[in-house]
# Entry
Amino acid sequence: MNLDGRLICDTGEQAATVARHLPEHARLSLAEAGCLRFEVNAMKDPLIWEVSESFASREAFDAHQARVAASAWGAATAGIRREYTVVEAEAEAEAEAEAEAEPDARG
# Structure
């Protein structure tokens, strides 16, 4: 399971909340069984954070989501807008394989 997207703050106060809670949230996320990648990086715009996560399975991803919902991070950032795309790793691999199998349009 892969999650990519953005965490979008409306105010500097929200961005400060993200910055304050992020180190512990990242530490706990990376320690979870099945977490392969967990990155949250500030963008040029100080109110936007780029998010990229990868989990070994749907079960690991679901466990992460459940932990986050019950965590200090979840409570502190509940009102912050998220624009995420979640893709099953198998579906992503199939799409890549299909793209590679298509004939070159340049002929």
Summary: The beta strands are 2-8, 35-42, 48-55, 81-87. The CA atoms of residues 38 and 53 lie 4 Å apart.
